[in-house]
């Protein structure tokens, strides 16, 4: 909803209430006017005008510039008509003009529609009319003029600031949505295209001949694609619906995971999704009871585990042993992936991210960050690596929650 809509509704209510107030004032002072029929005629015309145009101030689209000028003309005309229908003594005693405080509604319409500059111009027109009506710089006249001018200019300035803030917020939301879409696309690329290119490069170099040339070309394309993804130049597109575990490069893909429920928010047992990873060289330990997460959160966690196992195969070698441990805590699900490889040298993760290798930055940390979770690495050279993945139960899969931690 636009930030202006409540202001337009308030202005509509103000104009209606002040019209009623003005009608009561004229009715109570009817016998004191020099020409009461003239005052009654103006109030009748003002009432008809309000009946025909009250909806014009319910939105910015209906409140056109021509309407505002006509509305202000009714107010200024009523002020200038006051000396003709009222006595000079009452005017000098400070009697209200015919439109009274209804005039401020016409000025506020300019403020909301065009900002403080329009408000200043409309207030100046009302000020000149009041001075002509009173024919002197009386203290109460100056007080009323300054009050209307300050209030309208202040409201106009607030409206301009609110509009600028609304545009800034809309732009920030667009950038955030585009960034999340780019990260999801980069994860998908890392889990599929980049791994295939890397495998083609290795196999081509091993086979030799024409295959070696094909492998060299695949390696060049892998480097170019990594640079493109890491620099944020990939155009957003619709993400695919595949959510299975990622296949480790250069190794047989694990058995297909259990199918996800049709509804993204439906509970899903994470054990059924991680179970297919168990096999030669991978030990899977799970609780005896179901460990449930929303379906989309479970799929993202499974993909992160697949990326961690892929790193084990790539960096620890095909003979390394890996262990997957699932823990069901009251507020979160913890999955630990541990291996007995050589470990990660200090600073290697940061260097890999700078080089455009997105396994840790996006396939693992990026997925868990959007779930409100975290990923922690514990590695001692020569003693293996342990990756601890935490996902809060009921986490928002679309980035609605941001978790605390190192992700």
Automatic annotation (TrEMBL):
Primary localization: cytoplasm
Region annotation (Disordered) ranges: 233-265, 388-407
Transmembrane segments: 12-30, 36-54, 66-85, 105-129, 141-159
InterPro entries recorded: DUF5931, HATPase_C_sf, HATPase_dom, Sensor_HK_TwoCompSys, Sig_transdc_His_kin-like_C, Sig_transdc_His_kin_sub3_dim/P
A Pfam family hit: DUF5931
Keyword Transmembrane helix tagged: yes
Cofactor(s) for this UniProt protein: [4Fe-4S] cluster
Protein name: Oxygen sensor histidine kinase NreB
Organism whose genome encodes this protein: Streptomyces halobius
């Amino acid at each position: 909803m636009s930030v202006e809509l409540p202001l337009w509704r308030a202005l509509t209510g103000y104009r209606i209430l002040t019209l009623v107030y003005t009608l009561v004032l004229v009715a109570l002072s009817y016998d004191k006017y020099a020409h009461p029929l003239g005052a009654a005629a103006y109030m009748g015309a003002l009432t008809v005008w309000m009946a025909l145009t009250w909806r014009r101030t319910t939105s910015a689209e209906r409140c056109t510039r021509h309407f505002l000028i006509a509305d202000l003309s009714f107010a200024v005309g009523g002020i200038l008509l006051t000396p003709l229908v009222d006595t000079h003594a009452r005017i000098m005693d400070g009697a209200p003009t015919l439109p009274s405080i209804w005039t401020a509604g016409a000025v506020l319409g300019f403020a909301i529609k065009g900002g403080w500059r329009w408000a200043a111009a409309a207030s100046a027109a009302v000020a000149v009319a009041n001075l002509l009506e009173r024919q002197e710089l009386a203290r109460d006249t100056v007080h009323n003029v300054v009050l209307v001018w300050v209030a309208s200019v202040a409201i106009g300035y607030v409206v301009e600031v609110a509009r600028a803030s609304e545009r800034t917020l809309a732009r920030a939301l667009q950038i955030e949505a585009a960034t999340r879409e780019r990260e999801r696309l980069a994860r998908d690329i890392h889990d599929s295209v980049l791994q295939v290119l890397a495998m083609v490069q290795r196999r081509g170099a091993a086979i030799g001949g024409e295959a070696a040339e094909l492998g060299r070309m695949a390696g060049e394309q892998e480097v170019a694609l990594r640079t493109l993804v890491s620099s944020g130049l990939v155009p957003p597109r619709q993400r695919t619906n595949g959510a299975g575990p990622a296949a480790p490069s250069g190794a047989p893909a694990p058995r297909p995971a259990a199918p996800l429920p049709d509804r993204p928010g439906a509970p899903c047992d994470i054990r059924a999704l991680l179970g297919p990873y168990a096999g030669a060289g991978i030990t899977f330990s799970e609780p005896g009871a179901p460990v449930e997460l929303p379906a989309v959160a479970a799929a993202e966690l499974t993909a992160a585990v697949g990326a961690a196992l892929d790193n084990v195969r790539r960096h620890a070698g095909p003979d390394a042993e890996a262990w997957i441990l699932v823990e069901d805590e009251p507020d979160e699900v913890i999955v630990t992936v541990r291996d007995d490889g050589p470990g990660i040298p200090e600073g290697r993760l940061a260097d890999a991210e700078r080089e455009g290798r997105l396994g840790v930055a996006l396939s693992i940390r990026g997925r868990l960050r959007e779930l409100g979770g975290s990923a922690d690495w514990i590695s001692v050279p020569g003693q293996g690596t342990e990756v601890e993945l935490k996902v809060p139960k009921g986490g928002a899969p679309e980035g609605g929650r941001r978790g605390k931690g190192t992700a």
